Here is the input.
Amino acid sequence: MRNTQATQLLFELAKPGRRANMLPPSDVPTTPTEKLYPSGALRHEPLELPELSEGDVARHFTNLSSLNMSVDTHFYPLGSCTMKYNPKRNERLANLPGIVDLHPLQPDESAQGMLELLYELQSYFAEISGLPAVSLQPAAGAHGELTALMAAAAYFRDLGQTRTKVLIPDSAHGTNPASASMVGFQSITIRSRADGSVDMDDLRSKVDEQTAVFMITNPSTLGLFEKQIDQIAERIHSVGGLIYLDGANMNAILGIARPGDFGADMMHYNPHKTFSGPHGGGGPGAGPICVRDFLEPYLPVPRVTKVGEAYRMDADYPKAIGRVHGFHGNIGVLVRTYCYIRAYGGKGLRNVSEQAVLNANYMLARIRPLLPVPLGERCMHEFVASASKLKKERGITAMDIAKRLLDYGFHAPTVYFPLTVPEAMMMEPTETESKETLDAFVDALEQILSEDADTLHAAPTSTPISRPDEVRAARKPVMRWTATP
Ligand SMILES: *Cc1c(COP(=O)(O)O)cnc(C)c1O
Here is the structure.
């Protein structure tokens, strides 16, 4: 049954004269508004706000909130996004008054606790990545890519080298070529082989003295570890280029493999993926980056440093690329990350990755008989199934299955990404899910595949809106209500 009541706007629910309880007008003498502001700046008609009772408003927003799927309400196997359950303790700690009441312009002496936390977090990021120098400033993974590439560009300028190219495998996330273009590099696609690994012949033919950076996601967006990473790094380094590791998939290798040890010179983390930061809703993320020591001079300022026993924000780095964010970055997310890492510890983090990989492989083994998984016998923390055969045989697309899963109470996997797999369905169960949940999901999928094609084309039927025009919704979103005259 569609829930239409919850999707009516407050303006549509309003009736003139409806009110919540109001306090009587204040009898404390104050300066009248007209005396405080010029009359041209004052509104003479009341704002046309919808008029409702308090109960109407409470129900409206409570109903709206229940329309969303979230990690607190549903299994959410959105590949690449690592939608794991976020421990509530981290929320409580990040909201302690001593943390939320800090002002970013406070003198360092009065914010030693926060600076110590950030300093320690830098050292954890360095240890997990195997790359010693850290900037906490970038606001998201894509912003981390941009920042690191800006640092790389500054490094090459400093060496007096003009390098124009950034090489990127065809399975990469769209943010990689976008970041490269924004820094002024030309992005060049490297083909993958049929097994999903980098085509070394294609790579060799495109690497030259113009190569600045090779950007690689490892484990890749196909959920496979690129085993040729040593050779790739050797080839890129032999022409003086750098390896950038897109760390969106760190959830598979925490405490198991360190990017700095397998050839990366720079990387970002996505704390909202790997370290249980909340995502979505347009809220803040973070995209801290780690780099090798020779790139440190170019990192953004200010940086958290320790002098004797005191922590401070230090902007005295003449070669730095400047600031990429106001103040100290999105520290609310970084505090949650700190709590997460402290709660698990080194062994615990390794356990997170081992469990994530085990869960993904369990799901892969159960799904393979239902939907082909074209690449890889085994996977890391995620895998990519394909609805290509179903589309040919029964006219059922990845989108149909994704939409129908909503009717069964599951968030859909990532669909149509990576672009190298036709009718892709990228599934990432994460370590926080139980065997029962994984089984329930696969059972639902099996049930869906036994339904007739028309049922799937009509899905979802349980949501307020069935199939919006996704292109128009993305390109021309209507963000504002206007009264129809
Ligand atoms: C999520 C993701 C990004 C971008 O990270 P944001 O934090 O969303 O900016 C980049 N690459 C890959 C592979 C990703 O999954």
